[in-house]
Amino acid sequence: MSTRLDHVLNGLKEKGRKGLIIYLTAGMPDAEGTIDAVRRAEEAGADVIELGLPFSDPMADGPVIQTASVAALKGGMTLAKVREIVQAIRRFSEMPLVGMGYVNNMLHYGFPRFVEDFKAAGMDGVIIPDVPHEESGEMREICAAHDFPLMEFITPGTTPERMQETCASAAGFIYCVSNNGVTGVKKVDYSRIGKIVKGARAYTKTPLAVGFGIGSPEAAVEAAAEADAVIVGSAVVKLLLADRRDEAADLIAAMRKALDAAYHGRGRCRK
User: Fold this and answer.
1) Contact, 153 vs 120, CB < 8 A?
2) Which CATH superfamily is domain 4-263 in?
């Protein structure tokens, strides 16, 4: 069954456009602030929102997103309250929303219940960076039964054998990690992950999205060279932490403009 996420990402590919996925931490600075940030991101040109589910030990995240998660937790954010945020967003937007969180949080909630509740609220899938592919079988089955994609990962170190196995079960989009380490704006040689992305196309038609390190329109364009979409988090969250909401929206708009200028109209994206 085609999902809202499939419709948006495949539609962008058909138009020869690159997707822009923006990460926001749920509950930072508070629920209303998150809802406002989503609204502003959509108006600025975001195609998908990756909604961070605050956790006390976000192992894949750098200091900016760690700080945002701590602030959200101190403000009383819980998974139940994130679900309410998703429901509120669905009152004004049909933009795809993908959760990004850590497995202990979801297991404490009850993973089948998590999938059912968040699917019903209007979320379109989930990213769980601390569950490797070989340990995610039962979770993937639960997600597939509810048409709720569990995103897979590939990295510059992914072997062809592991890539083939990972891509075989991929749904939604594949998160292509640009470098070894945690999230955060940094100088990255995107040609390394670009070669991996190019190789992955032999095994899948699922959209491929590059993330980690993207902090400027120029970096977004570079990261998107072989990918279908880019994922931007820390650069936006850092501005929101400083209550620079207009600048955060301006950065998203600048990335959207740069991606369209570089790629739109140059033929369809790779399939």
Assistant:
1) no
2) Aldolase class I (3.20.20.70)
